[in-house]
Specification:
22 helices, two-stranded antiparallel ribbon, mainly alpha, two-stranded antiparallel sheet
Amino acid sequence: MASVKKFPHTYVIVFALIVIAAVLTWIVPGGTYQRHMMDVNGSQREVISGDSFSYADNEPQSWQVFSALFDGFVDKADIIAFILLIGGAFWILNNSKAIDVGIMAFLSATRKTEKLAIIKSIGIDNIVVTLIMLMFSIFGATFGMSEETIAFVIIFVPLSISMGYDSIVGLSMCFVAAALGFAGALLNPFTIGIAQGISHLPLFSGIEYRFVCWIIINITGISYVLWYMKKIRHSPEKSPVYHDDEWWRNRQQEESSATIDYYTPRSAWIVWLLLTAAFAWYAIKLPYTQLTIGNLTVNWPVLPIFAFGFLITGWLSLRKSVHFFILDLLLFTILLLIAGVMGYGWYVMEIATLFLALGIFSGIAMNYSANTITKLFLEGVKDITSAALVVGLAGGIIIILNRGMVIDTLLHSLSSSMADLGNFATVGSMYLIQTAINIFIPSGSAKAALTMPIMSQFSDLIGLSRQATVMAFQFGDGFTNMITPTSGVLIGALGVARIPYDKWLKWVTPFMIILIILGFLLLIPTVTMQLNGF
């Protein structure tokens, strides 16, 4: 019998990309742009000075391919620590069976609604997935949710498996949905905000057309996921991760067969009192929170509302069982995450700390000893370590290219290729260039700071709207976040979901082709029509 060729492991693929990057540093001439600091929407950003490119001696990388993992770990330390802390915290939650209780209660409630004719005709699963994806898409479009989605993968993959689907559907509910919103970028300060600021355009101008684009992108993306769900609903083996999901299915079977004892220990009431007191303290200290959504700022009594809400819901959930109280803790963790990001500029450090606290308080509420909580946390860290390792390895690709002095040369070559093109071809080329650059620079804010000083000035020379240039950047940055292997967020999310990169690539490639073509079509009006804000 002929042996079946196995696709390389994700680690092998990423290391191969590191080697290719090192080879480029020997072939591509070195080069550099001069940079200067610029105030962009109240923040200092390092941007490229126009027409400042000059060739320089490159720094060929050789043995550095072996130090790329270490360097990548240093560069991506925040995301790696985030993944490890999330993994440890959720292992404590999983051991409490609270998430299983929540999933069972959710599925039981949704199945009851299927008795309604209109719900039955649409399909309750379709409604649930659509609403969840729209919520995360709004998060991506308004405050740029990205790294935060990793924390939700652990929730939605088990939910998807329980609904009879696969880990890809679970990942789509949060990660793919947020990426669709990121591409729509209604008020995203990290992409549209920086790109327009550098291009000297009114902040978040042109939102009318971007809103139309966001709707079209979401209709397309959610429809693709719903089509895929229908495909595997009756034939689960058609899922590219059918065998990989065996781990999730076995875990679900073990947990569903286990008897759950509904009770509320005294320690849970103590946790409720302590956290209610903490909420009350901060509600008095910070009675109003300034929430920023795009260029809209509102002052709301967020923490007093949370304090009162937790007082009531915590008491009600404790009367049912500690499991529902832990779900209440999870709910308020998510609400605090949203308020923290929008009101206090939280990033991965604060969010990781928030989830770590969730894990510890959940363990205390379950009346676990300190040693038990520590043991469960370490088991969770051990289970998620492979996902953290591959993030560090992927970070090494960018390190190699930067140290080899070839990033700016590649950027200069790509931008120069647009010379002597018409407006349609130019905006299309900008779109393709931004898409290609996303492989080397997956950070949207960094890419905006690097490319927009050149692109916006180039558009002036040929009579192309700067808003069209911003839109080309927006689509080029957003879509390929779902496929580029240098993205720590993608690699981390895949690791948590236990989806091999090659299986994900097989599923997402047709989807990417559809979205990239859609991006071209949505750019046409920015050239042919005088749009409001353009």
